[in-house]
Design goal:
Elements (H helix, E strand, L loop, with lengths): L11 E3 L9 H28 L6 H30 L3 E2 L1 H34 L4 H4 L2 H26 L9 E2 L6 H5 L7 H34 L4 H29 L8 H24 L3 H15 L1
Helix pairs in contact: 1-2, 1-9, 1-10, 2-3, 2-9, 3-5, 3-7, 3-8, 7-8, 8-9
């Protein structure tokens, strides 16, 4: 089969979800609203956590980085998808595709690890409160955050370089919202079976290990909560943990569907729907799970807004 030189040609064509949808204008408007919501809500979370000294504690350090990751993740994908639809121009250069893949993998991997560290933080806070200051010192917390960014960026760099080194067939159409490994490998003219196995193994390792950490942490937390004598303390712990578990369920559910389930079990249309969910919907909703049910965040938001609006 004849190959096309993607580095010199016009690159790829991102088919996305808007072009082939039944009501593209309505979907475009919905995605635009969700993107603005994600930018405003995550931006406010970052502002509040940065400006209010009362929130300079480990839990809100992690929440701040979660908001930053969500804000960047949705910005890597959504503006490009909206502009492509509005301008009827769906192409993306070879370099642009590689950059988008690297950023998406970095931010997705960092959030994957961060959610596990957040679960551990809640476990220490609820099950070992007397040792919390020692076990979750500022140095330990920043080491955890740095680990998220460094490991995810190294993994993303390796996968991006290896994925983009394959020769691609005459078809340039990526039937997906963004440049990701599974849809790109379908365009490769070389044998990708070994690499697909490696992607599967690394995906399982990178997703299942943190997920096990989350599950074990919350099982231990649940046992501790059930033995609490204070109803107020039990309710506060349940509210905090239920918010985190909601975010965990949305993130890991989508990631497992995309990277662990065999490709034969899901179609390109289903992949597109899932990609919209974890790149656009989840970043818009995450701050609401944490802020609207958290009195400390809402109180800090009122103080910060009141200070700068007066």
């Amino acid at each position: 089969m004849e190959h096309w030189n993607s580095t010199l040609g016009s690159g790829f064509i991102l088919m996305g979800i808007l072009k082939d949808s039944g009501s593209p204008e309505l979907l475009c408007a919905t995605i635009s609203v969700l993107y603005m919501l994600a930018m405003i809500s995550n931006g406010l979370m970052l502002l509040v956590i940065t400006m209010d000294i009362r929130l300079h504690v480990p839990m809100y350090l992690f929440l701040g980085h979660l908001s930053l990751m969500d804000l960047l993740f949705t910005s890597v994908v959504t503006p490009k998808a909206l502009m492509d639809f509005l301008l009827s121009e769906y192409t993306i250069s070879f370099g642009g595709c590689a950059l988008q893949m690297f950023l998406a993998l970095t931010l997705g991997g960092a959030e994957d690890l961060l959610l596990a560290f957040m679960a551990y933080d809640r476990y220490v806070a609820i099950c070992h409160p007397l040792n919390y200051v020692v076990l979750m010192s500022p140095r330990v917390c920043w080491l955890m955050v740095a680990t998220c960014w460094i490991l995810s960026s190294l993994g993303a760099l390796g996968h991006t370089l290896y994925t983009m080194h394959f020769p691609f067939c005459m078809s340039q159409k990526i039937r997906h919202l963004l440049c990701e490994i599974p849809p790109l490998l379908k365009l490769a003219c070389a044998d990708t079976s070994r690499y697909e196995l490696m992607v599967y193994v690394t995906g399982v390792t990178f997703l299942v290990a943190p997920l096990v950490t989350v599950v074990v942490s919350y099982i231990l937390i649940l046992f501790t909560i059930l033995h609490m004598s204070s109803n107020e303390g039990r309710q506060k712990a349940l509210v905090t943990c239920s918010s985190h578990l909601t975010v965990v369920g949305m993130f890991y559910g989508a990631a497992i569907f995309m990277y662990i389930l065999p490709s034969s079990l899901h179609s390109p249309k289903q992949d597109n729907i899932i990609s919209v969910f974890y790149t656009i919907v989840t970043p818009a909703l995450n701050p609401f799970f944490y802020s609207l049910r958290n009195k400390e965040v809402m109180g800090a938001l009122k103080r910060v807004l009141g200070k700068y609006m007066v």
